[in-house]
Amino acid sequence: MEEHLEEMGVSFTPEIVENALKRCFKFGKLAIRFFEWVKHQPRFCHTTEIYNTVIYIACEEGEFGMVEKLMEEMDANLCAKDVKTWTILISGHGKAKKIGKALWAFEEMRRSGCGPDAAAYEAILQALFTARKAELAFEFYKEMVLKKMKVDIKIYSLLMDCLSTAGYIEKARSVGEDMIKIAQLTEAETYSSMLRSFCVSAKVDDACEIFGEMQKKSLCSDLKVYEVFVKGLCRASRMDEAMQVVNDMKPDLDPGGVIYGCLIDGFFRSGQACKALELFSRMRELGCLPKVSSYTQVLQHLFVSGKYSEACELYEEMVQEGVGADVVAITAVVSGHVQNNNISEAWRVFDDMKHGGMRPTRKMYSVFIKELCKTSRETEALRLLNEMSSSKIHVSDYILCLVRNSIARNGEHKKARIVEEEYVCQLAEHQPDLEGHEASSPIDAFDEDEVKELCKILTSSAKGDALNEKLDKTDLVFSPVLVEEAMRRCQRHGRAALQFFSWVGKQPSYCHSSETYNMAIKIAGSGKDFKHMRNLYQEMRRNRCNVTPNTWTIMISQYGQAGLTELALKTFKEMKIEGFKPNGSTFKYMIIFLSGKKGRRMEEAIQIFQEMLPSGYMPDKEMVDIFLSSLCESGRFVEARKAVKSLCKRGFQSQLGYSLLTKSLCRASRVEEALILLGEFGNLGCEVDNRVYANIIHALLREGRLEEALEKVEVMKRAGISTTVHIHTSLIVHFCKEKQIRKAEEIFKLMREEGCQPTVITCSALIRGYMNKGMLLDAWNTFYTMKFKGPSPDFRTYSMFMNCLCKEGKSADALKLIHDMLENQIIPSAINFRTVYYGLNREGKQELAQHVLEIKSNLKKERMISYSSQFI
């Protein structure tokens, strides 16, 4: 690309570059590469507008590291950030659900002197709606109102939805009042909007109240109002009330096919199929023509119920009545014909649809192929596969696996292999090779919507039978890639994930892959069901599925993470006996587990480290850091030095190696040895950078040697080395420990002034310092600042704050933190639960203490794996 640009001979102006970038949104990585290339051209300078465009592209690509770099570049090039810059940042972070970053960007915009405009407020509100932060969204909305900014109608609607979903009904109503007073909407429009919002957010009782007010105000003259309300009642399975509303409608209002369709759908959803069919018949008798969706639901029910002839008659009636059958309806009919072994009729309906000008969708092809494979019609399934390819409809991995496995089950393994190779080659030709790399095989793709649908089923079914029923009803076409990805995302729901693994393995035209077995083994091990983990491994071998070093590494890592070092070591030896060579990950996990404080075995760790290097695997920074720290903590400084020397000989960076050794000595409270090593840096070809100083200063402060630590800070400054966030944090931790909270605050303020962003550890240290001084309000303020502006609290922050609150007799507040952790997908530990439980009991709050046990029990049910034979 760069060669072509050079050959063009074009004089690139900022306007040309900006317009070119704006036309390259679909090719984000190439756009960014062009941006990087053009800035090195003679006499060219990027403008704010160009930076804004590239920041937008980087946000869309999810390249937030690049976004940070671009922002720093703007500062370095003295390129002013305008309102649009900050608005793009807010919107980008909001879409990525990085709400803390979005709020930070909004505050930075204010600090920079750029007054937020209506677009900026809309961006932060959209971000808050996405994150379901209703209270914050309401506050920003109020700011808009106070500043007399025009609020878009869609913002009113989305804010009302957000507040309703969160249960803030009064605030939602106040937004409705503003719609009348400020936006000057009519009462009818406003009340209709509130009714829709309450129905969508499942606040049906409040919707009933609104509907009653509308009736009193005579605002129910529009049929759309009834449609919204009836649909809301049906979704909540309040069918009797829905029927009553329809019966009470004014004579001049005809319910029509839409409202009847809502009722039919509601009856089917609530398991009242007889009432749905009765209503369907009655509306036809009344001369009301059902909508195509109602016909489709009844057709599906008849086919599933074995009433094949009735379903066929109904479809013919539907055609004669002139109800335009859509793709969904025709898919149901085609599927019904195949299920009843009337393949010729299925093809007739399918071909008639195409002759009528309607194109089959990928979903329709998937369902048709799935049903054909179930009835062992591989030849016809292959015909459909060819048709998809010639129609340029993407043949997904699901469909390809389905046909391939079906052919293989028939004993035609060679044909199955040919089919797979042929389609992989065909589809690879259509893959864009924008980066100049080899195009990835489509066999590795999965459909995001289908993964989400499957995850929803797995996470919403508590009981085994209910899960199997839902899985039986789904029309998804299962492939190993889809199964693996769904299980990966549902690891927290281990029981459901493994039950799904067992269920899908028994489905026709499906075979588990090495990757799906590996994922199941990982989930079983993470739930500490090691017996089932081993059973899965044995099953994998029985089914002649390819066992790889990665399979062994997963089992080793699960034992190691559970603290079962002996079993991890035993499995490592068993792996080698079985003839499998450890890979880099295997070596890494073994060394990390053997180096851990719990069950530490340094002799074996040194032995495996010495085995790893000649095998050609280079350790990463994390492994070297843990290994050296363990050696130093064990007093084995000679071995630590030898290890670094060996690594550097094999290409490991000397600067990094000796920096990590210094850090390890400091961690082991060997400050004098670390200072001696510091004096040798010049001879070793290394320089003393701010990271090395940070470790030395931290170690000195930990030993109470404040004056020496401050002296090192001065030495750094004189050498022109910048102070890092780690050094500031170490000083804050020291002063908080000494209960000199004002000095800690001064350091924190100095950090901000220097543009040094605090880390989670910095803010956590301040919270601990405030709690030690009894400054509860300041601690909470710091915590909420972390939540909404970043850096987000992590597991350690929550645990520390929880302990402090329980010590202060505020265990009820600590319980709120447990709820907050779960909302943010952070799993509380057994110690967290125990701390809060005992704290509440001490404070005489036995009911809340019992609630803690219930939360723990529910979480355990989600994560722990049953020994039931259904998973084996």
Task: Please provide a written account of the structure.
- The chain is mainly alpha-helical and 872 residues long.
- Among the domains are: 450-547; 549-615, no CATH class; 794-872.
- The chain contains 49 helices and no strands.
- It is globular and about 95 Å long.
- The protein starts with a helix and ends in a 9-residue tail after the last helix.
- 71% of the residues lie in helices and 0% in strands.
Quaternary organisation of the protein chains: single chain
Instruction: Determine Rg (CA atoms, Å).
Output: 32 Å
Low-confidence parts = 427-442, 865-872
Instruction: Give me the number of helical elements.
Output: 49
Strands, count: 0
What is the approximate shape? globular
Strand content: under 5%
Whole-number mean pLDDT: 85
Which properties best describe this structure?
single chain, repeat, 872 residues, PPR_rpt, mRNA binding, 71% helix
Task: Describe what is shown at a glance.
The chain is mainly α. The chain is built from 49 helices and no strands. PPR repeats lie at residues 82-116, 187-221, 222-252, 256-290, 291-325, 326-360, 361-395, 548-582, 583-619, 689-723, 724-758, 759-793, 794-828.
